[in-house]
Amino acid sequence: MRKPFRTDNVFEVEDDAAWDALVAVCPQGEVFHTTAWLRLLEEVFGVRAERLGLVHGGELVAGWPLLLRRVGPFRTLGSPFFNVVTPQMGPVWRDPALLAGLLAGFEGYQRWAGIAYCEVTFAAALAGEGLAGLGYRQDAYRTLVLYLEGRTEEDLWKGCEGRARTAVRKAQRLGVEVETAADLSFLPEYMGMAEAVYARHRHRAPIPLDFYRALWACFWPGGNLQVLLARHESRVVAAGVFLGHGQRLYYLDGVSRPEGYRLGANNLLQWQVIRWAREEGYEVYDMMGAGIPEIARFKRSFGSHLVELPVVRRTNSLPATAGLAVYRGFRPLARALAFRGAALRRREAVAFRTDGPHRIREGGRT
Question: Which of 17, 28, 165, 246 is most buried as measured by Cβ atoms within 10 A of its Cβ?
């Protein structure tokens, strides 16, 4: 059995209740820090989750969730990794004065575990300042956030740009209706839309089917997960996945058919979730990401504000630098081959009739 990491005041936290109690009282604590989310990532993406904790005066007062996985011969660490449907993570703390001790433990853990590469996206801007001089390359993750606290529905409507309000009215006039999914029966249609969206850019849908199933099983029973479906003439033309935690609501994912854009269905769906979030008492709506200009423009139209969070990356040895460079060089080719393989499998899909199998025509899937 692997011996846990431990120093005088930093150790691997094994008590789920103690960890979640810490996350709940720290201002940086988000759903992405919780035990439930970490277990979901382990189940779906095959990472291993660990939690470093800092003890002061006999109390757990700061913590840092870590995701671990191998890339070839290299041990890598993410908090989070960029491709696990988790925008930010990093440490949580009760008092900024505790950060120096937690950071020392984080550095010690990397040496102890033989980490070749690490990347961190912090949930709070303050946290990145203590890393100066430690060899990290610094960047920023940009997201768009709508502040709901103390605002009436009229305030939020007036805060939308004119083009957003026009699109919402258009969708209502054309008979688009928004409903809440009550079970997983929406999933095949949702995945079909996701695959079609990414296929237009010669990519596979980045979020696997198992993620949505695990997300539903973990968060829907407690009322934290909402899946909204926009229908026009009984056909789903747009959908969104929203996760609430504490005072924050997250726009985890969304898909649309081409007619959904023309009908204004995406705008109506967003306006409905904004109204619902305000009524439920959420104070912040994190629209998660501003990296694609066209999508960022859409999100901005609802009055959201740009927020930048620190991102740091570091390779810890020359062999790791060289090896990971080779890996990244081959990654686009691997994605292209994976997309081509998926396309071939779709074309070769076999449907059975009474007169025997026949191949489904390419392009038959919406």
Answer: 28
Tell me the C-alpha distance between 233 and 316, whole Å: 56
Cβ atoms 238, 265 nearer than 8 A: yes
Under the phi-then-psi rule, with left for phi > 0, alpha for psi from -120 to 50, and beta for the rest, what region is 289? left
pTM of the model: 0.87
Tokens of residue 67, six digits = 């995701």
Q: Are strands 59-71 and 74-79 parallel, antiparallel or unpaired?
A: antiparallel
Buried b (16+ CB within 10 A) or exposed e, 52-90: bbbeeeeebbbbbbbbbeeeeebbbbbbbbeebbbbbbb
Place of tokens 């990356």: 313
Which token pair is 54? 């800092």
Distance of CA 21 to the CA centre of its chain: 22
Which residue's entry shows tokens 């853990």? Answer: 109
Going from the C-alpha of 275 to that of each of 29, 154, 249, 252, the distances in angstroms are 24, 10, 12, 17
pLDDT tens digit string along 100-112? Answer: 999 999 999 999 9
